[in-house]
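INPUT
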Amino acid sequence: MNIPQTNQKRIVIIGSGFAGLTLAQNLKGSAFQIVLLDRNNYHTFQPLLYQVATSGLEPDSVTYPIRKVFQHQKNFFFRIADVASVDTKRKMVVTDHGELSYDYLVMATGAQTNFFGNKRIEDLSMSMKSIREALDLRSLLLQNFEEALMANTEGKKKELMNVVIVGGGPTGVELAGALAELKSYVLPNDYPDLDISQMKIVLVQGAPRLLPNMSEKASAKALEFLQSMGVVVLLNKVVKDYDDHCIFTNDEQIPARTLIWSAGVMGQPVTGVGEINRGNRVEVDEYFQVRGAEDVFSIGDVASMTSEQLPKGHPMMASVACQQGIFLANNLKRIVKGEELKRYEHIDRGSMATVGKNKAVADLPNFKTQGILAWYLWMFVHLFLLVGFRNRVVALIDWAWGYFTYDTGIRLIIRPFKRKVVEPVGNPDKTESVNV
Amino acid sequence: MNIPQTNQKRIVIIGSGFAGLTLAQNLKGSAFQIVLLDRNNYHTFQPLLYQVATSGLEPDSVTYPIRKVFQHQKNFFFRIADVASVDTKRKMVVTDHGELSYDYLVMATGAQTNFFGNKRIEDLSMSMKSIREALDLRSLLLQNFEEALMANTEGKKKELMNVVIVGGGPTGVELAGALAELKSYVLPNDYPDLDISQMKIVLVQGAPRLLPNMSEKASAKALEFLQSMGVVVLLNKVVKDYDDHCIFTNDEQIPARTLIWSAGVMGQPVTGVGEINRGNRVEVDEYFQVRGAEDVFSIGDVASMTSEQLPKGHPMMASVACQQGIFLANNLKRIVKGEELKRYEHIDRGSMATVGKNKAVADLPNFKTQGILAWYLWMFVHLFLLVGFRNRVVALIDWAWGYFTYDTGIRLIIRPFKRKVVEPVGNPDKTESVNV
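OUTPUT
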């Protein structure tokens, strides 16, 4: 990979999620050469993907072009690349665009959906870890309603309208809530010739309560909110199989053409780096150094810093990833200065989930709240994190009124275009000598 | 197709472009049952697709969900359907979702790209008649720049950065202008390690002047604007072939990995309707009745009302299509009232094209102008037409500040999702009897 070799130490960061992006941003002005690698040319604001899937937001509101983030940043290089493996002995990253040497490597490759080995569910269910998956889900939901208009039996209509969500974590809860609001406020107007009241939104949770990582109070309130919005919540139920028409739990069948899988995530580490634990995450020490790999660090969802208090490592959350990115940036700067590295001390900033308008739950370090106050908190936090996107929304308005802001933000390769291959005519090598 | 049979006369409209959509909107409150058919669930604002392709606008700014337009409209039915043919004797429309009878049929199926039989150019070039094509082009342009970073020869870099546009009509001119502004204001910031000055934007026009359907003055000014923005404009040149690396005109070769074809359009009539002329458009009389097909009308780009003054029919433009939609709606209402049909008298509202900020050309019935005034006119006209979209942009802001407007506008099937087919388990027919 042709990145200029300078006398600066090179840090290669794999992944531009919350962890990798925050790290790169906080290394601005440092003595390092920074190379950021990602499969896409944009950062995805994963916590809001469920809104794209439910037609609430356009892709450009939850994605952000990486190059725009780092405009005018010196000694910074971004490349779209797929990392195949890492050779820690030779200190080389192996990508689909050749090899790249590193002085320090940071693996921030995040998480992927865990189907627990059920291949059929993996093939037939929808998940929501990427903007493409969220758009696929948006399309499928709408296509099913269009198809329902053409269906000639009530059974087929129900099957097409029903949506089953597996997994009672934040994603499942927020998605169920958004779908319930679609059902109440949008679909009846869009489909007057369908009996939307027949549509069932079912949330299946294996555990005895929703939002298991939050307080009992939050779980109870989230359940209450969802039920008040007409969502059927099934607790202590496990989805065993799906045949594209019917979901099979341990003891019942639910007809639905849409199965959304948000029941599990696992790390997606790069081959050849460190020790991988049960959650498919890589073990790191309290400096985020990968055990057994020199000068290799890992942060975010893919990293697991276990301790007696945290046998499973830190929660896989955006806020945690950002906190770790900032911390590691400072430690890396200490390396240059020859200072001693600091131990990571995690600050629990709490967690929240929103179910619908004025309906959210928040567990904060100092207090817990549910309902409208929690919803405003959720709003505030997300607006804060979304500042980059808000700028772009404003730019969009600027456009509507003033036509053209020169730096438009939507430079995203959301659906890579595949060109066909044909027999060449003429002589492509000659193209140098053309006078245009 | 299961549309309820009532005692109302049924008008089937094929196509929800400017012509079909305007017609359906203006038939609101009439004594007809209206059935609108389209391949997509949204209307596309085609004149602004070039802005999607150049990362200026998100898809939701130039598309609009059809169901949202017709919410609460009585006796109106929309269906996503692909019309295979029309049996004018049996008065039946044959679709991929079965047959549909009509009392009156309106074909408003619009235009398609005309490659004049050059299959290789059709396979390898990009065109911009749909939102999908515009998004493909956006992706390709960005992918090429990412690839250029990896290229190891100057020739390959140039090939990847260069863009050749064929066709000097409004689309070609506006696209060339937008690309020139990208090159000047966006790409150098996004790709500091590429020499963007090496990028060539070439506009190839077969005729002796740009915008042949506009005044000499407009053509001259458009050429001046584009050249001042660094676009290479080749007049009297015809593109003969393309091998995916090099464009071959009658007398030169231009290296480029992106060839955009906006050199021709032709109608896309439905099989079995009327007489098709050279432009692949269907012949209509001055009532928009299709010659030789009873109770069948056609408006918009696909319809051709020829006369001595207009041997080629009316120009294929959005404003013309809207004018015809309104006119036909009124004539159809006259049929119910038993009144005599009116002859269509076309009002030339003029035409305009924008090249860049403060750079546009406008030929209006009463006066012609170029530059900043024309640009403000263009702005005004498009803002006027865009009112539906502006509402949605405002809704997006509402979201950013207030989180959730209940009626979100982005209900678009932009990329239909294809589900995999697998062997079923259990018994799908049983799904009726499920207790959820």
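end of record. The longest strand of chain B covers residues 33-38.
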